[in-house]
Amino acid sequence: MKKTILATMLTSLFAATAAQSATVVDSDGVTVNLTGELEIQFAKDFDTAGPKLDVYDANVGVDVAYALTDSVSAIGVISFDTQNGEDDESNADAELDDAYVGFASDTYGTLTFGKQVTIYDDAGISEDYRLGYSSFYDQDDSGEQVIKYTFERNAVYGGIAYMLNDGDNVNNDAYAVDGKLGVRFSGLDLTVFYGQGEKGETADTVAEIGDKSKSLNLEARYTIADLTLMAAYGMVDRDAGNSTGYTHDDEGYAAGALYTIDKVVLAGGWALLDADNADHEVNSYYANVTYNFNSNVNVYAEVGGDDAEDSEVGYVAGMTVTF
């Protein structure tokens, strides 16, 4: 099995589960990796609640690759995840996170089917751990019925994903489709994301106003030596299902920077969101420092806030261990 095929699969498919992986089988064209990540945080969010100790992220997974030819491999991925910090559930149980199969090739790209994230999961320039800003997107960016294709060829990369009627939806018109296209040259990385979808009716509720949406993200990164500068623009248009058609609802701008000094990484950023349902524009910010003991272990501290009503400055101290 060509090493470039394996490198492509690990980079594009398994980076979301852990920064590193432990290879348990690598023989006769068969590769089996065990991946995992545990992240514990002591954090206070923007609300008035006091600080808490969170099992913010805990996941474990297995990925398998079978070499079919010199340039194509069949792959399978399964992982389980618990994210108390994101879901704000103090007793959240581990649940199935990824479960998909497909084909990977350094020549033709990667095609996968099953429970997985869509392309828009990659959107956003924030390098925060908890208190930063997200991308501007109004559809789910993961589901159980996702078909996704990604590719990277020299300086050009991209992908497209289609999510079928998912979860408890009973409206067969419900869907989400998103994609990205990017190019890298001379230290500059430019990416455009686009997505649209319809949430549809569910088993117990009727679709709300704005259940159709179109989203756009434009992102730029420029790296010189150990410094990376980032900027982004995002917008969401919604269709209430009446004669007005799509209306321009949310718009946002963001900027950030990342600087590496040996094992220390400094990051910070700012964003401005002008939401249609908000009383005023909201400015948000974050700053953090990370110390990497090695590629598998780090500790970090972060502070962040915004000028929304009843918001307070938040802070985080955490540690991450991956394998």
Task: Tell me what the structure shows.
Helix content is 5%, strand content 59%. It contains 2 helices and 17 strands. Strands 2-3-4-5-6-7-8-9-10-11-12-13-14-15-16-17 form a 16-stranded antiparallel barrel. β9 and β10 (188-198) form a beta hairpin. It is a multi-pass membrane protein. Residues 10-310 form the Porin domain.
A few lines on this structure:
This protein has helices at 3-13, 84-87; strands at 22-27, 30-44, 52-67, 73-82, 95-105, 109-117, 142-153, 156-163, 175-185, 188-198, 212-224, 227-239, 246-261, 264-274, 282-292, 297-306, 314-322. The chain is mainly beta.
pLDDT < 50 stretches = 1-12, 14-19, 85-90, 203-210
Helix content: under 10%
User: How would a crystallographer describe the biggest sheet?
Assistant: 16 strands, antiparallel, barrel
Give the distance, in angstroms, between the N- and C-terminal Cα atoms.
23 Å
Question: In terms of structural class, how would the helical and strand content be classed?
Answer: mainly beta
What's the helix and strand layout?
Blueprint: H1 3-13, E1 22-27, E2 30-44, E3 52-67, E4 73-82, H2 84-87, E5 95-105, E6 109-117, E7 142-153, E8 156-163, E9 175-185, E10 188-198, E11 212-224, E12 227-239, E13 246-261, E14 264-274, E15 282-292, E16 297-306, E17 314-322
Antiparallel strand pairs: 1-2, 2-3, 2-17, 3-4, 4-5, 5-6, 6-7, 7-8, 8-9, 9-10, 10-11, 11-12, 12-13, 13-14, 14-15, 15-16, 16-17
